[in-house]
Write a structure and sequence with these properties.
By secondary structure, this protein is an all-alpha fold. It has one domain. It has seven helices and no strands. The longest helix has 15 residues. The radius of gyration is 15 Å and the shape is globular. It starts with 5 loop residues before the first helix and ends in a 7-residue tail after the last helix. The mean pLDDT is 92.
Amino acid sequence: MQYGSLEALFASAPDVWEGIRLFRETMARANSCYSKHIADPASNSACKRLHLALRWLVRREGPVDLGLWKSISPSSLFIPLDLHVGRNARYLGLLDAGRKANDRKAVILLTEKLREFCPQDPVRYDFALFGLSINEPL
């Protein structure tokens, strides 16, 4: 194995997006039929599941975060963006309400905004944004 572990693979990349691309490429080399099931940042995907997995593996502060990976900083993570997080971020004015797409650009814009509040851990707001309207739609 070229990297020895998934953590080493992601740590070898200059940023998380490149790590996702490298992970996808490595999986495709190993078995091409599986790579189609891995989000592709080159196609403007928000890569929600991969960002969520990275959150669990890297962060140490949350109730569900495992914090197993020590070589990646929480400051380099991006928000796992889905329909709920996007809707709530727009409602709160964290994302432009006129821009409806929940894509890679929205992930980057929202994470940049969240970094203004907490540069060392912008993803700490993930559960709050997800759960804001869980019982009562905004």
